[in-house]
Amino acid sequence: MERKVYLILTDTGTFFTRMIKLYTKKPYNHASLSFDPHFSEIYSFGRKKPRNPFIGGFVKECIYTGLLKQADCAIYSCCISEQQYQKMLHFIKEIEEKKEQYRYNFLGLLAIPFHKTVHREHAYFCSQFVAAVLTEGNVIQCSKQLSHMTPHDLQQVASFHLLYQGTVEGFIKKNSLMRKVRTEMKTHAALGKLRQKIASACVFFFWY
Fold first, then answer.
1. Which InterPro entries does the record match to this protein (predicted)?
2. Domain tally for the chain?
3. pTM to 2 decimal places
């Protein structure tokens, strides 16, 4: 079974992300990842409460509601082995099981413009977490410390291929349409097989 990991880069347009963008000058300032092509489960480090950016930690995000639905995005995919998938999933689940111990690494994020490293146990910012997961699965080999990895650095990884760029809402509509088309194609194929079976049965009874 072919596995894929999806990299989701977003810009929600909030005050906090606008402040980050003033420094980065890059279009996307939040990173998440998923193993699900329908993005029912997305993992990252971010705000736990939608209206308070200063209470953060490990989060499961949803592109169908809240801030992400209104965001601009770039979505990338990379083919991975079953072993890579299991290693990354295990890494994430270990963090999820102890999520109350984990915090958002604000100090590490603020240190990046000054080219400083802040080592904090049980703390990540979004792109640091995504880079850590991908490194755990041997999907990427970082040329810099994980605490210096930005969403733009992840965007430059050669093994990831761009799937979509635009608004999250536009992606949802496109994805829903594709799922509808696939469902109709499967239904049409199933009906075709059923007709063949009926035709074969009719021929059988005609001759015997």
1. Papain-like_cys_pep_sf
2. 1
3. 0.83
